Amino acid sequence: MRSVASALPVFLQDLLVSDAAFVVLFAVFVLEGAMLLYVAPSELLVPGALVLIGDRYLVPIVAVAVVGATLGQFLLFLVAKYGGREYLLSRSWFRVDESRLERFDGWFDRWGSVVVLASNAMLFTRGMLTVPAGFAEMSPRRFVVFSAAGTLVFESGLAALYVFGGQVLA
């Protein structure tokens, strides 16, 4: 089976084994949180970092992932809050179309701010409620807490899968 680390782009693998590995990892997670990282699946970032940097750094890797992704999501939250719907939809870097955004708006309207935490803890919906939260005037403090909590659950789960299924993933 192919290694998790080999599924990451070569340039990212090279950076994660450099002396600046944690700085690079932080920057990668800021981009991932802001929905700007399209070169690597987010589900492989923590396991790949554990392979390349070393699993003895599990806690710092998860911490960097949570802080970086939360910062990235918060920046996107602020863009949504102050830029608005039309601004985001007109940006080429924002790859969510109107119909998908409306669906996530509906989720936020139905379940409220707790859906930010829940969506950040699940595959395929990570970060998708960031923009509706910004549109809905959710409190920035509440957003950061819910975003970080959901991200902690998600990244810790990925780290646990790596640690407990490491023979398969490495």
Automatic annotation (TrEMBL):
One of its GO terms (cellular component) is plasma membrane. It is a multi-pass membrane protein. Residues 43-153 form the VTT domain. Keywords: Cell membrane, Membrane, Transmembrane, Transmembrane helix. The chain crosses the membrane at residues 20-45, 57-80, 143-164. Pfam families: VTT_dom. It is found in: Cell membrane. Its main location: membrane. This is VTT domain-containing protein. It comes from Haloferax marinum.
